[in-house]
Amino acid sequence: MDTRWNSTYSMLSKFREQKKVVLSIELDRIQQQAGFYNQTKRSRQNLETIPSSIPHISCNDFELLKHLCPIMKLFDAETKKFSKEKSTASTIIPTLRRLRDFLQGEKFPESVCPFARDLANAINAKVSKLANNRILRMASIVDPRFAFAEELWNKKQWAKIEDELIEFAYESKNF
Questions:
Q1: Is residue 63 included in any domain, yes or no?
Q2: Is residue 67 assigned to a domain?
Q3: 22 assigned to some structural domain
Q4: DSSP state of 91
Q5: C-alpha–C-alpha distance, residues 36 and 42, integer Å
Q6: Confidence class of residue 109 from pLDDT cuts 50, 70 and 90?
Q7: Coil, helix or strand for 40?
Q8: Fewest Cβ atoms nearer than 10 Å: which of 76, 98, 123, 172?
Q9: What is the chain's Cα-based Rg?
């Protein structure tokens, strides 16, 4: 089942806020496993202990989240914009291109680079597919925010989209 970006971002940012608590529980778990004492603090307080099947969490994991959360926050904001009633089809391709360009142009720590690269590739695939949608292309030309913006389409592509719009209007007139 796919998870939406905004729910993933929300979950990870809330988890990050609990860093001190999580690392304290993890330290207790490690000390108990190393034999420093027979029971964890949690079990002495009649709290449920962390099953050994759950992977250990370290400061490095929180360092990674420190870099991932701002990227995901951007996706969260864009998802919320798309979800609004005032969102229009003309914003889809420009928004995805802007996100892709950010991911490809930003200097990320080495640990985040594979995530950013995979995300940019996924967006590239989506943009390529959506760029073939005639209605979305025409929507971008009639929106004054994007019409003839060369960071969106080059001059030759804009001319083609303009021709498509004229053809569409002509077909609609004869319908």
A1: yes
A2: yes
A3: yes
A4: G
A5: 15
A6: very high
A7: coil
A8: 172
A9: 24
Cβ–Cβ under 8 Å, residues 101 and 120: no
CA 52 to chain centre: 31
Helices marked H in 18-149: 19-33, 41-44, 59-83, 92-105, 113-131, 134-142
| Residues constituting the chain | 175
Residue 144 within a domain = no
Residue 42: the pLDDT is 60
**Number of domains observed in the structure of the chain:** 1
> Could you tell me which residues come within 8 angstroms of residue 120 by beta carbon, excluding any fewer than 6 positions away?
100, 103, 104
pTM equals 0.71
Q: In the numeric block, which tokens belong to residue 149?
A: 């913006």
What is d(CA 20, CA 29) in angstroms, rounded to the nearest whole number? Answer: 14
* Six token digits for residue 81: 């914009």
